[in-house]
Automatic annotation (TrEMBL):
Protein name (database record): EfeO-type cupredoxin-like domain-containing protein
Lineage: Archaea, Nitrososphaerota, Candidatus Nitrosotenuis
Superkingdom in the source lineage: Archaea
InterPro entries assigned: Cupredoxin, EfeO_Cupredoxin
Organism: Candidatus Nitrosotenuis uzonensis
Annotated ranges, domain EfeO-type cupredoxin-like: 83-152
Amino acid sequence: MKKSTYSSRSFRKILLPGLVAVVLVAVGYFAVVSTIPVNSTHPVFGAPSNHYIKVIDSKNGPIFVTTSTKGAKKNIEPTYKPIIHARVGELISLHIINEDHDKHNLNLDEFNVHTNDIGYFGTQSITFVADKAGQFYFHCTLHPEMTGSITIE
């Protein structure tokens, strides 16, 4: 009887640290994986340039508008047919907020940026590395007239 109690205690002493180790490894793995941008194969550690893109209804139908918190200067005035500026190698996070009653998405094909169809007041964030120079256009596949651009220098 004592032998089984002893082995039960030993088992618990091994099981608890083992479970803790498994949980820590899993958390670490997901923490590192979450730092991999959509157009990269390795983690990028750094603060991204955040751009907020809202979908709103206008007189002429739904449109994209943006605000940005790039650097210390905050642009809180919405810009229609938005143009986002970035430098090559910059880490960019796009935060899409749908304030229209229809579903919308955002696609920037050259950087493998594709959101889900986002419902009313839904949001999605996507991070990528601006790894090539030029002017690139993003659009909604459900409403092709909704466009904006990103200029990378």
